[in-house]
C-alpha cells in the first residue's frame, strides 16, 4: 500500500503511523469506489452537503439557538481564518476541550478544514490525564471552553497557544471569529492524511491514540449510518455521548452533517434531560448507552416520544431484558451495535425486522467479521471465539507497540468473545478479560448481569470474578437496586435463586454486594477493573 502525497507541513502524524505491514487489511475496493485520492472530510460534510441540498436547513442547535448550514459554514470559515492567522499549519495537533455544543462543532470542523489534526478530549478529564494526551499527541494548540480552563491551566507539559471560547473577553475566540473574513480556501488534504486522533479512555494505563484519516470519517457515515440509520435531511439527531467518544462524534456531528440533517447538541444529556429533549425538539434519531435506556424506562410514559424513528444503543453490550423492556414501553426496537475507537464506529448492527433480540446483529456493509480461534480458524456456529473484523476503517495506533496486540494476521482483534450463528448473526459473550474461570467452568460476566437485570428489584449490576481458594474464582455481583427495593439477606438469596432458575446454576453469583452506584467512565462504560 502506497500513501498519497500528504498536504501536511508538520509531518508528525504520518511519521508516527505504524509501518504499513503492521496495518490491518482494508476493503480497498470499497474505498476506491467511494473516495478520490484528495479529500477533506470537513469540506465534504459542510460545503459538499450545501452543494447537494442547499444551506437553509438546520445544521446544529442547542435547543434554544439554531444555525442553518449556511450559518454554520460562515462560522467555520471565519474560525479557520483565525486559526491560520495564529500560526496553525497543516499537520499541527489542536486539542479541543469542552462539552457538546454548536461551538465545539465549529472548532472541530475548522481544525480539520485547515488540514490540522483534531484531538478532542473528554470534558471531565483532569490535569494529569490531559498531560498524558498532550505528551502522546505532542499538542501545539488548544481551544478550550471558558468553563473548562481550570484543569487545563495546570497542564505542565503544554507550551503551545491556548484560545478560550464562549467567554466575554476581548481575545475570546468567538470575538476573533466575528471580526474575521468568512471566505476561506480549504487545504487540499489527501484522503489518507490523518485528520484526528481518538484516544482510548486510559482507565487501565497509558492511553492509546487511534489515528484516523479523512476518508475514515466519511466511511462510517457511508457504511453504518447509511445502511442502518438510513437518515434523511428531515431527521434530528440527539444523544448523550461526547464528541471525544467516537460513538458520539459519529452520531452527533458526522452523521447528521453527511446527510443534511440537524444535530441537537446538549451540554448535559442525563436520562431525564435526554427524554425531555426528545419531546421538546421532536428528535428522530437517538443515540445513547444501554444503561441510559434502562434508566429512562420508568419515565417514558411521562413524555411524548412519538417523533422517534430509530434508537441506537452502543458503548457496551445491550442486555436482552433492556431491549425487551424498551420495546414494550415505547414500541421501538433498540438498534444494537458494536464499534471501537480503533475502528472509529459501529461495524456490527441490524435494523427493523432484521433485529434478533439478544444479538448484536450482522456485519455492516463494507465490513467482514468473523469469530476465530487463536490460530484464526473460523469457529463453527454456536462456538465462542475471538471477534475479528476488517473493512474500510481499522487500527493504526500512534507510535504504540500495542499495535501488535490489536492487529494480527490482517485482522483487527477487538478483545471481545462472540458466538456466530448459521444466519450470520453475532452474539456477545464477554470481553476477553470478563471471562470468569470458576471450578473449571468458563462463565461470561455479561450473561450473569443479563440474568440479574431481569429481576424487578435490579436497576444496574456489574459482575466480576473474585479470587477464591476452593474454586479459583467465584462470581461476585455488585447490584444497584431500584428505589422500591430494600437491600437484605433475603433479597440476596432471592436474586441468587432467580439467576439459578434462568441460566446454568453454576453461573449464579455466590456473593452479592449492594451499592449506591457503579464506577463508570465519562462515556458510561462500566469500569469492572475498579470492582475487581
Write a concise keyword list for the protein shown above:
Rossmann fold; nucleotide-binding; ATP binding; AMP-bd_C_sf; 24% strand; nine-stranded mixed beta sheet; 25 strands; 532 residues; AMP-dep_synth/lig_dom
Describe this structure as you would to a colleague.
With 532 residues, the chain is of the alpha/beta class. Helices cover 31% and strands 24% of the residues. The chain has a nine-stranded mixed sheet with strand order 2-1-10-9-11-12-13-14-15, sandwiched between helices. Strands 16, 17, 18, 19 and 20 form a five-stranded antiparallel sheet that branches. Strand 13 (335-339) and strand 14 form a beta hairpin. It is globular.
Q: Name the structural class.
A: alpha/beta
Report the top-level CATH class of the largest domain: Alpha Beta
Specify the helix fraction band. 25-40%
- Record the strand order, biggest sheet: 2-1-10-9-11-12-13-14-15
The whole-number mean of residue pLDDT values reads 94
Q: How many beta-strand elements?
A: 25
User: Might you state the CATH topology name of the largest domain?
Assistant: Rossmann fold
Amino acid at each position: 500500500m502506497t500513501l498519497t502525497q500528504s498536504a501536511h507541513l508538520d509531518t508528525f502524524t504520518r511519521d508516527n503511523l505504524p509501518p504499513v505491514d503492521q496495518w490491518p487489511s482494508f476493503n480497498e475496493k470499497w474505498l476506491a469506489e467511494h473516495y478520490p485520492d484528495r479529500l477533506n472530510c470537513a469540506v465534504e460534510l459542510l460545503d459538499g452537503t450545501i452543494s447537494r441540498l442547499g444551506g437553509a436547513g438546520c445544521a446544529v442547535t442547542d435547543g434554544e439557538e439554531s444555525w442553518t448550514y449556511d450559518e454554520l459554514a460562515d462560522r467555520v470559515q471565519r474560525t479557520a481564518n483565525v486559526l491560520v492567522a495564529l500560526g496553525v499549519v497543516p499537520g499541527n495537533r489542536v486539542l479541543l476541550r469542552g462539552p457538546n455544543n454548536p461551538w465545539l462543532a465549529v472548532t472541530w470542523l475548522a481544525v480539520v478544514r485547515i488540514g490540522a489534526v483534531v484531538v478532542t478530549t473528554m470534558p471531565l478529564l483532569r490535569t494529569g490525564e490531559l498531560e498524558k494526551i498532550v505528551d502522546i499527541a505532542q499538542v501545539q494548540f488548544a481551544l478550550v471552553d471558558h468553563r473548562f480552563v481550570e484543569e487545563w491551566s495546570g497542564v505542565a507539559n503544554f507550551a503551545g497557544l491556548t484560545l478560550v471560547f464562549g467567554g466575554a473577553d476581548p481575545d475570546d475566540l468567538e470575538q476573533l471569529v466575528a471580526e474575521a473574513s468568512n471566505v476561506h480556501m480549504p487545504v487540499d488534504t489527501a484522503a489518507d492524511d490523518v485528520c484526528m486522533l481518538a484516544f482510548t479512555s486510559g482507565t487501565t494505563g497509558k492511553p492509546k491514540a487511534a489515528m484516523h484519516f479523512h476518508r475514515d470519517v466519511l466511511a462510517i457515515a457511508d457504511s453504518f449510518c447509511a445502511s442502518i440509520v438510513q437518515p434523511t435531511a428531515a431527521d434530528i439527531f440527539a444523544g448523550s455521548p461526547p464528541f471525544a467518544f467516537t460513538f458520539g462524534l459519529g452520531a452527533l456531528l458526522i452523521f447528521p452533517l453527511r446527510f443534511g440533517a440537524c444535530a441537537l447538541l446538549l451540554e448535559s444529556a442525563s436520562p431525564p434531560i435526554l427524554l425531555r429533549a426528545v419531546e421538546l425538539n421532536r428528535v428522530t434519531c437517538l443515540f445513547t448507552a444501554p444503561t441510559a435506556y434502562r434508566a429512562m424506562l420508568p419515565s417514558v410514559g411521562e413524555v411524548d416520544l412519538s417523533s422517534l424513528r430509530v434508537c441506537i444503543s452502543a458503548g457496551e453490550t445491550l442486555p436482552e431484558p433492556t431491549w425487551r423492556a424498551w420495546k414494550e414501553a415505547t414500541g421501538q426496537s433498540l438498534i444494537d451495535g458494536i464499534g471501537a475507537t480503533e475502528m472509529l464506529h459501529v461495524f456490527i448492527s441490524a435494523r427493523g425486522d432484521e433485529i434478533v433480540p439478544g444479538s448484536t446483529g450482522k456485519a455492516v456493509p463494507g465490513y467482514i467479521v468473523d469469530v476465530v480461534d487463536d490460530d484464526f480458524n473460523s469457529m463453527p456456529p454456536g462456538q465462542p471465539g475471538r471477534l475479528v473484523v476488517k473493512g474500510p476503517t481499522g487500527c493504526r495506533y500512534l507510535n504504540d507497540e500495542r499495535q501488535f496486540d490489536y492487529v494480527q494476521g490482517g485482522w483487527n482483534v477487538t478483545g471481545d468473545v462472540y458466538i456466530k450463528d448459521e444466519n450470520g448473526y453475532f452474539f456477545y459473550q464477554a470481553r476477553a478479560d470478563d471471562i470468569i474461570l470458576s471450578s473449571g467452568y468458563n462463565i461470561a460476566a455479561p450473561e450473569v448481569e443479563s440474568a440479574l437485570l431481569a429481576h424487578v428489584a435490579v436497576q444496574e449490576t456489574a459482575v466480576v470474578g473474585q479470587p477464591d481458594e476452593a474454586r479459583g474464582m467465584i462470581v461476585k455481583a455488585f447490584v444497584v437496586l431500584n428505589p422500591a427495593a430494600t437491600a437484605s439477606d433475603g433479597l440476596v438469596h432471592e436474586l441468587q435463586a432467580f439467576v439459578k432458575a434462568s441460566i446454568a446454576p453454576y453461573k449464579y453469583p455466590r456473593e452479592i454486594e449492594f451499592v449506591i452506584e457503579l464506577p463508570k467512565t465519562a462515556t458510561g462504560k462500566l469500569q469492572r477493573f475498579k470492582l475487581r
